[in-house]
Design a protein that fits this description.
heterodimer, A: mainly alpha, B: D-Maltodextrin-Binding Protein, domain 2, D-Maltodextrin-Binding Protein, domain 2, 2 domains, six-stranded mixed β-sheet, 17 helices, 12 strands, 15% strand, ABC transporter substrate-binding protein (chain B), signal (chain B), transport (chain B)
Chain lengths: 327, 404
């Protein structure tokens, strides 16, 4: 009796640990890693597009009237919002905060250089205006530039998502150990059933049989939920997040090609630009997958209740037989 | 039993508190050095750790200035930090954020007025770069012309001799992303220091001499003649590190590059060799740039680190690293300690200089220095605006407080 109750307790502990560990990993991806990564990539795309918008405004002569233009300002606002979001999420600890602080300082410097370009251009010093715009562009795209810093933040967040996806809670070992404990418990219940049938000349012990059935069901349910959570997180990591990234990368590529062309005074594609709506659309399947990964279908409550039922029924079944024997 | 338990508990709390304070056996350093520069500094720090058992926690970030400002704002500054320039040192000294340090090599260059109104050394020059140098490629300029250039004692004679080199005597490139224009400020500083002398230079650098004064105006006009005679286009868009590479790679390229001692690293990167320098003509004055370490938390470990970094032993570890570009203001470091002949000659020029001055724009308040940088770029774009530029600069001077 003690063995079955003990094994039930161990099963509950193992399954709950895997479930909670997995949900913690899913929560970390859903609440921090993935949003921080997308924010960093969006900030990159917004700044790339700001650079293109500024070049376009200066090359077209519109800067004389409107400076770097509304598109530039909108892009900078988008970048600032996303950087603020990364700060709120605080995914990188003290080192992450330092890096983000440095990036924010560079954004201010970048904006200042574009303002200098604007001022020089309006003063009639066109070559100086273009020189300042070039410095701004170099600050953005340079070797130790602003975008490199943002990419570092993005890479850190991508790594954290990757680590959570491959965390031990979703590994074969954790699931196998849980399943093995459940199977051993089931085997013990069957063994007790058979032993008692032999000793007490009663073929079936209903409470023990019920415990076995409940345990088998619980085991299947647990493994199905584990598999569903793991699959959903894997899909989010392997397919949906790269999908969002592809959308952003395409926008970054278009913006960078545009600013490169405008910089050397070649015509650039008028289309493209930062498309936040497309990013949102690409993000929806990711959000859905992560929501699915966070849905344990009631197992969190079912696990302790049904384990308790298994333990109770098993103990009850044994106790019933023993009581008959003692009479 | 209870008493024994309480005693053990108290002992534990005391131990944890002692460990948590961290002041006795560790010191934090913030600087902008990363990559090979950081490696060189770490090798200096490693010896300190070995000698003293004090652990040094080094943070290297390109945006050390912003990080320092933020940490000061949050009330958690590092024990020590390498400051971007003497202007920052003076501001932090005046605000009381910096703690005075003992004297040492170059302490006269780091003396500033504290919140008590008294003047103290607030930092040490941990690494100096020698400016006032004119670089050339030995293969591109014949020995006769070289000798004539070296013999000149004033700018006019030097400029005339330089004009004989060819259609593009001067390499000029003033781009440096967020800090563009500084190579031009170095030109004007050297012209004022060597042509007008250290007195007007000091007065100008400390905001006492107007930008519209004859000495300053003359320097700008001379600078304008260099630009006009350079035969170099794209000055605004050429990086300061790339400006001199045609000396090695282009037979028709420019021939003289006014730059600091650190520029040799760029020449090497471009695959150049055989570079040598001439001191800026007009007297034995040398302008230097330097990285200044300031102490923000006065702890015994921080004091020991500051004292160690000024020693000849520590400085030699640094300067001996090939390509470090570091020079020491400690006169106990012999020129022979430097790793190559050119570095040894630069060190000789530094130790034998009668006048050593810090880069004036680095010493000016941030707003003045930024205006100076911009003014250089504006002047390059349109030299005809000199009067307007100098008047605007002087307006900034008059409305800016220059900490002493």
């Amino acid at each position: 009796m003690g063995l079955t109750v003990g094994l039930a307790l161990v099963f509950w502990l193992a399954a709950t640990s895997v479930l909670l560990g997995g949900q913690d990993a899913v929560g970390s991806v859903e609440d921090k890693g993935a949003p921080a990564y997308i924010s960093a990539r969006t900030a990159h795309a917004a700044l790339s597009d700001a650079d293109r918008a500024a070049w376009r405004s200066f090359r077209s002569g519109a800067a004389q009237l409107i400076g770097p233009g509304q598109e530039f300002r909108d892009d900078l606002t988008t970048a600032a919002d996303n950087l603020a979001h990364i700060a709120e999420l605080d995914a990188g600890g003290a080192a992450g905060r330092d890096l983000l602080r440095a990036v924010n300082a560079q954004v201010v410097t970048y904006q200042g250089l574009v303002e200098q370009a604007d001022a020089a251009y309006r003063e009639g010093l066109e070559p100086l205006g273009f020189a300042y715009l070039t410095y701004a562009s170099d600050l953005l795209h340079g070797q130790d530039g602003l975008l490199k810093g943002i990419d570092e933040i993005a890479e850190r967040d991508r790594r954290s998502v990757h680590e959570e996806r491959h965390s031990a809670w979703f590994g074969a070992a954790a699931v196998s150990v849980t399943a093995a404990i459940g199977v051993v418990l089931l085997a013990v219940l069957v063994y007790v059933q058979v032993s008692m049938a032999r000793r007490f000349r009663r073929l079936v012990n209903p409470p023990l049989l019920a415990a076995s059935v409940v345990l088998a069901g619980l085991l299947v349910w647990t493994l199905v939920v584990f598999a569903q959570v793991g699959d959903a997180l894997a899909e989010a990591h392997d397919r949906e997040l790269p999908g969002v990234d592809r959308v952003l990368q395409s926008q970054i590529g278009t913006a960078d090609a545009g600013s490169r062309a405008l910089r050397v005074n070649r015509p650039a594609d008028q289309g493209g630009g930062l498309d936040v709506v497309a990013v949102d659309a690409a993000q929806r399947p990711l959000d859905a997958r992560l929501a699915a990964a966070g849905d344990t279908e009631g197992l969190m409550a079912g696990l302790p209740l049904l384990t308790l039922a298994v333990a109770g029924l098993a103990a009850g079944g044994v106790w019933l037989r023993l009581r008959e024997f003692w009479r | 039993m209870t008493v024994r338990f309480l005693a053990v508990l108290l002992l534990l709390v005391a131990s944890v508190s002692a460990c948590g304070s961290g002041d006795e056996k560790s010191v934090t350093v913030l600087a902008s050095w990363t990559g090979p520069e950081a490696d060189a500094f770490q090798s200096v720090l490693a010896q300190f750790e070995k000698d003293t058992g004090i652990e040094v926690d080094y943070t290297g970030t390109r945006d050390a200035r912003a990080v320092l400002a933020s940490e000061l704002h949050n009330g958690h500054p590092p024990d020590t930090a390498v400051l971007a320039n003497p202007g920052d040192l003076r501001s932090y000294a005046a605000s009381g954020a910096l703690r005075p340090v003992g004297g040492g090599a170059g302490s006269d260059l780091t003396t500033a007025t504290g919140p008590d109104g008294a003047r103290h050394p607030y930092g040490i020059v941990v690494k100096a770069a020698v400016k006032s140098l004119i670089w050339y490629n030995q293969a591109a300029i014949g020995p006769d012309l070289r000798a004539r250039l070296a013999a000149q004692t004033g700018w006019d004679g030097f400029a005339k001799a330089a004009a004989e080199i060819g259609p593009k005597p001067w390499c000029l490139g003033f781009a440096d992303t967020s800090n563009s224009g500084w190579p031009g400020t170095d030109w004007i500083e050297d012209l004022i220091l060597h042509e007008a002398g250290p007195g007007p230079y000091d007065a100008w650098a400390s905001g006492r001499l107007p930008w519209t004064s004859d000495e300053v105006r003359r320097a700008w006009q001379t600078f304008g003649s260099v630009i006009a005679a350079s035969g170099t286009s794209d000055i605004l868009l050429t990086g300061y590190g790339q400006a001199g590479t045609p000396m090695a790679t282009d037979a028709q390229g420019c021939r003289l590059d006014h730059q600091g001692s650190f520029i040799t690293a760029f020449y090497s990167q471009a695959g150049g060799s055989g570079f040598d320098f001439l001191p800026f003509p007009g007297g034995q004055a040398v302008e230097i740039g330097g990285d200044i370490l300031g102490m923000f938390r006065d702890t015994p470990s921080a004091r020991r680190l500051v004292a160690y970094l000024t020693t000849a032993r520590a400085q030699q570890i640094w300067i001996k690293r090939r390509g470090s570009g570091a020079f020491s203001l400690n006169r106990d470091v012999p020129p022979g300690a430097y790793p190559d002949a050119v570095s040894q000659r630069i060190a000789q020029a530094l130790t034998s200089a009668k006048v050593v001055r810090f880069d004036a724009s680095d010493s000016m308040p941030t707003v003045m220095a930024a205006a100076f940088n911009h003014a250089v770029l504006e002047f390059v774009a349109d030299p005809g605006r000199l009067d307007k530029i100098l008047t605007a600069l002087d307006k900034v001077r008059r409305t800016t407080t220059f900490p002493s």
